[in-house]
Design goal:
This protein is α/β, with parallel strands linked by helices and 255 residues long. Helices cover 46% and strands 13% of the residues. It folds into 2 domains: 2-154, NAD(P)-binding Rossmann-like Domain (Rossmann fold, 3-Layer(aba) Sandwich); 158-253, 6-phosphogluconate dehydrogenase C-terminal like domain (6-phosphogluconate dehydrogenase C-terminal fold, Orthogonal Bundle). The chain contains 9 helices and 9 strands. The strands form 2 sheets. Strands 3-2-1-4-5-6 form a 6-stranded parallel sheet, sandwiched between helices. Strand 4 (51-54), helix 2 and strand 5 (77-80) form a beta-alpha-beta unit. The protein is globular and about 60 Å long.
């Protein structure tokens, strides 16, 4: 299979390195900054690909999707890795577009931090369109499995609500916690592993974070309101019992 990867940052670079390492496919990377074997700046090299991953920032993804319409034929399956799905699901293209989103990453960014095992044990959300052919979905699913991830089917709307709960709002909270101690030197000196772990998402790629907050603002606001409500409930409850139940829930979530 011939597979193209556009954008070789943490996600795209990890896809590229994994597939190249596996030596099962003919893999071509598209990047303006990475100079490696099988990497080019010319999008025309994607002609004839069976599958193409778009791993660019969200704010240029629609532009790339349009650009590919003049390059790829109707047989090529294309997917993106954006952390929002509704905004990319509204148009149709000559090729076969299946939106998706790997739930994997680190606080680092760029080609140098990309590694082949990034997706091992991860889940990968896929939001097929109404006209998606099952054989095209199965092709994408098979490559996702090769990367080490499990496919989870959902809709664009439900996906965007869910990631606000588990990713976008937590990132915003982590950033807010950091702002809380900007003017408190003692808190900064006392901050240890608990604060470090809780605020890891504040280290997120700033361009990606901006896209998430701007483009998913309403869902994030809903989550923040829910968070405030749940904090008030905890204050007004038998806190010890509630905390114990939450601890059990957290243990089961990752067991």
């Amino acid at each position: 299979m011939r597979i193209g990867v556009i954008g070789l940052g943490l996600i795209g670079g990890s896809i590229f390195k994994n597939l190249l390492e596996g030596k099962k496919h003919d893999v071509i990377g598209i990047s303006r900054s990475v100079n490696e074997f099988n990497v080019t700046k010319d999008y025309n090299n994607l002609k004839g690909c069976d599958l193409v991953f778009i791993c660019t920032p969200m704010n240029v993804t629609l532009e790339i999707l349009d650009k590919l319409n003049d390059i790829l034929d109707e047989k090529t399956v294309v997917t993106d890795v954006c952390s929002l799905k509704e905004f990319v699901s509204k148009k149709s293209y000559k090729y076969k577009f299946i939106p998706s989103h790997p739930m994997a990453g680190t606080e680092h960014q760029g080609w140098d931090y990309a590694f082949p095992d990034l997706f091992e044990g991860a889940v990968w959300a896929v939001t097929p369109k109404n006209d998606t052919d099952m054989k095209d979905f199965e092709l994408l699913k098979s490559v996702i499995a090769e990367l080490g991830a499990e496919t989870v089917l959902t809709t664009p709307q439900e996906h965007d609500k869910a990631v606000a709960l588990i990713s976008h709002a937590p990132m915003l909270v982590a950033q807010a916690l950091c702002k809380n101690i900007e003017d408190n030197e003692l808190a900064q000196k006392l901050a240890a592993s608990g604060f470090r772990d809780t605020t890891r998402l504040a280290m997120s790629n700033v361009e990606m974070a901006n896209d998430m907050v701007v483009m998913n603002k309403e869902n994030i606001k809903d989550v923040v309101n829910m968070l405030n409500s749940n904090i008030e409930k905890l204050f007004g409850s038998d806190y010890k019992s509630e905390a114990q139940e939450i601890k059990k829930f957290r243990e089961n979530l990752y067991s």
